[in-house]
Amino acid sequence: MPPKKVDPKAKPGADKGKGPSESVVPENECNYKVSMEVMHEGGHYMKIKYNWMDVKPDGTVTEMDLDTGFFKDWTLIQIEGEEAVPVEAEVPVAADPKAKAAPAKKPAGKPAPGGKVTMEEITDNRPRTVSYLHDFAENGISAMKITEAIAEKFTKQILRIQICSVNRETSEEGVDETIDIDISCLLFPRKTVEFEWKFDKLQTMAIHYLNVKVESDQPLLSDFLGKKLNPL
Questions:
Q1: Least reliable range by pLDDT among 57-61, 66-70, 104-108, 163-167
Q2: Which residues, including other chains, have CB under 8 Å from residue 231's CB and lie 6 or more apart?
Q3: How confident is the model over 122-142, as pLDDT tens digits?
Q4: What Å distances lie between residue 13 and 21, 22, 164, 224, CA to CA?
């Protein structure tokens, strides 16, 4: 009987009932949350833009660009000189259908000469603390499968925070400040994945402080990959 021919392109495990695109290595699928807290001077049209790794079904890796919307539309925690807003009264922007649709609308205001829209003036200039939450799963973004290749990319992954302001008269948007955060640390925890970065000496004078938190519902690395890539 002639020996069985072996396909040199076949991946290990393909002959054990696994499809050629399936991995035989245990891999975790992670859902992320990105949250922020800002204390800022009122009277400004400011927001934050940031990036996140986007893994396509075929394994292609790109970057998605996310926009928090204006600070004035974030969840209000407290205005200086007033009592803090009760937690049960807070309504996250992402959970409010009207607030979620707001970024797609044109800025409120009257048309200025030349057809441009002038945004309404924010008259309350008191400092206030606001919060933002982006739950990837609740926003329809599939869990990210952390393969060995994705883990390698995470070792060099940067979370880029861009503080942006919009001119009320012209609607022109500019980047006031950029902060790069190395998030390769997300690979290390074997249990709870929660990291927070705090910034209180920013170039943007209108912001008193900015806190950024990233969470995952489970460790990025499976036990197998954790022992293989991070044995200590």
A1: 104-108
A2: none
A3: 778 899 999 999 999 999 999
A4: 10, 9, 49, 16
Report the amino acid identity of residue 171: S
Q: How many helices (H) and strands (E) does the chain have?
A: 3, 13
Q: Given 3-state DSSP classes, what are the helix, strand and coil percentages for the chain, each rounded to the nearest 5?
A: 15, 40, 45
- Listed residue (43, 40, 42, 41) closest to 121, CA to CA: 43
pTM: 0.76
Position 20, amino acid: P
Encoded tokens for 39: 């204390």
Q: How crowded is residue 167: how many other Cβ atoms within 10 Å of its Cβ? A: 12
Say how far residue 52 (Cα) sits from the centre of its chain: 6
Tokens of 205: 């004078």
- Non-local (6+) Cβ contacts of 133 within 8 A are 33, 34, 35, 75, 92, 93, 94
